[in-house]
Design the sequence.
């Protein structure tokens, strides 16, 4: 999307005392890591200045690329003593700015820690380093008939460490659950370099479930360096089927009725007309261009099982006046259907700049929220493409705008915020799988009251009393005190220039 | 089992300043609750002196039976101001002493809060009060073809609040997961009376996953008063099948191979010869009395699906020299098979006193741990019956002893501790579904190092800084400081008489 103009989101004011100690900090990093694992040259630092939320950029103070848990521990010990903030980073695919740097922080990138350490079928698990990509776990066990279930669209690039930070989902999570349902243990480095192991592969470890707490904590409790993940046997077969409808409301109601009937297909994905056109132009997947809304429903199992489940789904779809039903006739066709869906964000990026929302709503509210989303976007004079995990109620309106038009960009952000508030007001929440990051941080007060947020902050502080880890994310800057990372709180007079990083 | 002799487990020393204020505390409870909701008469208090871990007993200071979240909040506000410890209680079926009182604590019993508030099929959830029994949720939605999945053997009596406290499992959790996988939200009263709502029914709420943390926290973070739980559609059919083996090792290896093949039946339950005899005598379920070990494997789905899965399982069982295969031929037979299994603890109680262990081990270690368990029990001159959730690796050796023989009782406790240490050393953990409670508290140091425990305590203190909730449970008494509930720490000189409550 190229450079963008920083508008409404504030960053924490960098701590000048840390900036002044840059050389000292870098040399202390070099004292615990090999030379090539410490990046401090501004040109090289550019590679880390943003993540998938590319509208915002900051150059970090330095980047380290450790190769082991021991090296990560040594880095944290060195930095904690100097009270330097740390931003953990996987592949940098976060869509909510979860890995965006701050100028006074060191980025700890886990991409060199990408080994699969152990595959254990009797115990249905794999032990991996945090920098391994999501897809490479499934690839490593595919020949033996297994896979790792959560499948974010970015699975070719994104790391399991990033998935854990954001509790990532994916198209097939309707049946198999999100990351937290498939995570059995982590090794994590605390702010002072202490190494802690949570979970040993059991479903219910004794004592407090700190593992579940770490999953989705957006890199704020510690640095996850290794993970134990659940392996699942591949089904006998799987088949995506396309259902075209005359309106988004009919498609939305059909989804609610499928789930209300107790049917849980592997996936129910939704696309509106705009998304269908964009994805079909890219993938030539055979999507029905005349439909106002499309559902991709995937069934799996033996031929008989798939036919049985599909029969029940078709019956429900007919009650909602389905116009087109198209079963994939080959593995190639099936792959194309998924290629179109999984490339939706990339394909949209080819035709326009966009911001991607991630609100989740109760299924009973799906049709209503879809309609209201259309109204909101229209009110701002913008267009949106809707492509999302309908079975989970996890919506992804892509609001299209032109990055070179600052007025449109502001309107896109405002429309996005209105849509997220709509999701919360409909009984849903701000994020289904992308996380809060920096993008949705200031909307947290719409979802949670002070008691809720204070409780979360108290738990966060029980891991990281100095707010070393990723301090500018998740929690609103407003209302932060000395104890919760507010010592360098944003100040309109002193915050970084709003024109920074326009390039 | 009648009264028992308190032996090795220490209780926290009651705080004399609280005991001295008993009348004042009771009258402050009466000021916020209707008269009949406050129990302070010692005779009536007897009903609450223990739970499913009946060997230990303490009379609480008082019991309250609130009828609403507001009443619970008023109670907590009153007690927090007076710094009186609180023990939350559901049906009192805990097998690890999770609900056992302490003399200076008020029990908050949730059994009057047993309403099902809302059933919502499109969103696959039910909203219930915490005192509702596990089974009554399934009963309420059964006619519509749904059920609530976790099914502890005590499901007729145990409450959903207790299930949440212990992250309870059950025979069918192999496929459907334990409580944490089926819990979507709670309403919880904090120590000072503040009411907090966690989760709104989504899989991944924004911010820290405090809901996952609360599940399994054994009543130490707050008082859960309402819950939102996942509803699941009943399968087309279900069939339990009995597999008899010539040795426990063969049965254990068979389980590991079924799972390693990627097959996940709904349930794989294990019984050894001792358990088979006890359960068959009670239920007349048609268990093979000549088998050394029995697996109850339940398959579900359409007839074709069940036949397919069963075919693959039979093939694996034959590789382990299965001796008997018996399919249930009717719904009545199927019900009898489950009756035998679910009554195992009760049936055992008819023939002997027992303590029930709950260690969980990696499936690859199942056969080894079974063999070693037998050796340990033999070494102490005792007998054990093994009946457990084999598919999860969640073992339940019932160590048989005579409650009137203090030497045997001590040996049974020692053997139990050795078995739990064995589970941990084999890569497993202390508890699969029953929780730590008071029973396994002092073994926590075998599973966790100081860093692990300190981190858990810090998180606990972020909810309950004064250690008001259930303070004598989960964390070892040794090493407690001022900040973690140790102000009334156990002291060999001053702890309650070891002969207390022998009756």
Sequence:
């Amino acid at each position: 999307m190229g450079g963008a103009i920083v508008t409404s989101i504030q960053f924490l004011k960098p701590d000048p005392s840390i900036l002044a100690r840059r050389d000292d900090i870098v040399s202390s990093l070099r004292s615990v890591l090999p030379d090539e694992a410490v990046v401090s040259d501004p040109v090289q630092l550019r590679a880390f200045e943003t993540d998938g939320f590319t509208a915002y950029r900051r150059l970090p103070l330095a980047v380290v690329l450790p190769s082991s848990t021991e090296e990560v521990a040594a880095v944290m010990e060195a930095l904690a003593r100097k009270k330097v903030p740390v931003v953990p980073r996987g592949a940098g695919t976060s869509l909510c700015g979860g890995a965006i740097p701050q100028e006074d922080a060191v980025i700890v990138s886990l991409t060199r820690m990408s080994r699969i350490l152990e595959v254990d079928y009797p115990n249905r698990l794999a032990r991996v380093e945090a920098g391994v990509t999501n897809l490479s776990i499934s690839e490593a066990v595919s020949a033996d008939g297994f896979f790792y279930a959560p499948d974010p669209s970015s699975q070719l690039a994104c790391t399991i460490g990033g998935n854990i930070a954001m509790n990532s989902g994916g198209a097939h999570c309707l049946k198999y659950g999100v990351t937290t349902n498939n995570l059995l243990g982590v090794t994590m480095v605390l702010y002072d370099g202490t190494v802690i192991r949570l979970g040993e592969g059991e479903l219910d470890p004794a004592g407090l479930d700190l593992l579940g707490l770490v999953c989705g904590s957006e890199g704020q409790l510690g640095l996850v360096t290794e993970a134990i993940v659940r392996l699942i046997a591949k089904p006998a077969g799987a088949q995506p089927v396309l259902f075209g409808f005359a309106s988004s409301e009919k498609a939305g109601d059909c989804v609610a009725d499928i789930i209300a009937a107790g049917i849980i297909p592997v996936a129910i994905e939704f696309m509106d007309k705009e998304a269908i056109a964009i994805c079909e132009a890219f993938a030539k997947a055979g999507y029905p261009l005349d439909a106002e809304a499309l559902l991709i429903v995937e069934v799996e199992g033996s031929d008989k099982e798939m036919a049985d489940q599909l029969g029940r789904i078709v019956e429900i779809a007919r009650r909602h006046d389905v116009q087109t039903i198209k079963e994939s006739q080959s593995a190639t066709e099936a792959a194309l259907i998924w290629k179109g869906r999984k490339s939706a964000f990339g394909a949209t990026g080819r035709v326009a700049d966009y911001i991607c929302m991630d609100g989740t709503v109760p299924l009973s509210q799906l049709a209503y929220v879809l309609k209201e989303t259309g109204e909101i976007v229209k009110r701002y004079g913008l267009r949106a493409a809707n492509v999302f995990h309908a079975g989970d109620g996890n919506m992804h309106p892509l609001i299209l705008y032109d990055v070179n038009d600052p007025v449109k960009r502001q309107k896109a952000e405002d429309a996005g915020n209105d849509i997220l508030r709509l999701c919360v007001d409909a009984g849903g929440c701000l994020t289904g799988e992308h996380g809060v990051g920096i993008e949705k941080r200031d909307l947290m007060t719409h979802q949670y009251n002070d008691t809720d947020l204070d409780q979360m902050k108290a738990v966060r502080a029980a891991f990281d009393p100095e707010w070393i880890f990723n301090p500018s994310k998740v929690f609103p800057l407003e209302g932060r005190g000395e104890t919760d990372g507010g010592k360098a709180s944003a100040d309109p007079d002193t915050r970084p220039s709003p024109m920074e990083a326009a390039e």
In short: Chain B touches chain A through 83 residues (CB under 8 Å). Chain B has a mean pLDDT of 90. Residues 347-425 of chain B form a domain with the Alpha-Beta Plaits fold (CATH 3.30.70.2740). The longest strand of chain B covers residues 223-230.
